[in-house]
Amino acid sequence: MTSLRSTLKSATAFAAFSLSFPLASWAEEPLPVVATFLILGDMVERIGGEHIALTTLVGPDGDAHVYQPTPKAARSVAEADVLFLNGLDFEGWLERLAEAASFDGTMVVATNGVVPIAFDDHDDHDDHDDHDDHDDHEDHEDHDDHDDHDDHDDHDDHDDHDEHDDHDEHDDHDDHDDHDDHDDHEDHDEHDDHDEHDDHDDHAGHDHGAFDPHAWQSLENAVIYANNIAAGLAQADPENAGDYYANRAAFITEVETLRADIGAMMKSLPADKRTVVTPHDAFGYFAATYDLTFVAPQGMSTDSEVSAADVAALITQIREESISAVFIESITDNRMMQQIANETGATIGGTLYSDALSAQSGPASTYLDMMRHNATTLFDALGN
Fold first, then answer.
1. Which residues pair with 277 in a beta bridge?
2. Distance between CA atoms of 349 and 151, rounded to whole angstroms?
3. Could you tell me the mean pLDDT of each successive run of 10 residues in the chain, 384 residues long?
4. What's the pTM?
5. Domains in the chain: ranges and CATH
């Protein structure tokens, strides 16, 4: 009797194992996607959730203006089904990277539908006539007209949101080996053999076009980013479209709450405390939203040359307007701002995050945390 019972137990266990094996082999494979930089990657991760395997090319505190793609980046792009980019000429290096990687997936331009701010002082406006028509956005017009955005609002209460709470903390960034490998951006040893880099000492590939590309600095634009991301993921992975739109709705709810909080904070700043001095010109959309004036000695790109005349003019302006604080950025060499503060008597008001998120241990490890941190830093320095 004991022998029969043992035999039946073993047979039951074997049957259970046999049934579980094919189920495991049929488990859903996450959609391989790439985002060009971490601010965009954070939004993609929030909306994609457990259904995507995300690689972000430019990691924490990285500078996309001067980024040079690595062989590892090319492999990630080659294997991706969807490639998310900011657009507006922010990623001047991306076209060559996609071509080198023979990328044959779908490109999603996150700024499709954004009303861009013109950058009138940029020398090469005339060379970027194609921006007037936004030709590179034409392939994504269906994102704007995606009627089922509204139809998926009923997913706001989707139970699986609770399962995505860990995205807010981005614990899985620690597992993204490619972020750890971004230390080599500073040395670029592997690029020594790339002849084409030698011919680009003038950083022509990093020049921005006729428009300010830093559109994410507006929370209103973040809603447009979220819509484009959700539509791009739903098109590539229709089976999980409901989850993508549910995650989008949850994210937008948080965006709108933060918009109200920051709006009240910025509205309370005195009229004579609404000029902000930063190293490079990356906060135009934030300035337009909250009626602030941002001035910077450097242009749109962190690799722009700064003239002595520009610095002298800025020092004069700070003195004449009695500007009490200047701000540094996480991605720039801040010795110039320290010099300006020393010569004018202004204090360093804090660190702002413009083009990159902080590491997990920092104050701006998610997009929403970055926007909240920047607003609070400005208010604390200017409002007192």
1. 295
2. 45
3. 50 47 62 98 98 98 94 98 97 97 98 92 38 41 44 42 40 41 38 36 49 97 98 98 98 98 96 90 95 82 69 90 90 84 93 96 98 97 84
4. 0.72
5. 31-258 (3.40.50.1980), 266-382 (3.40.50.1980)
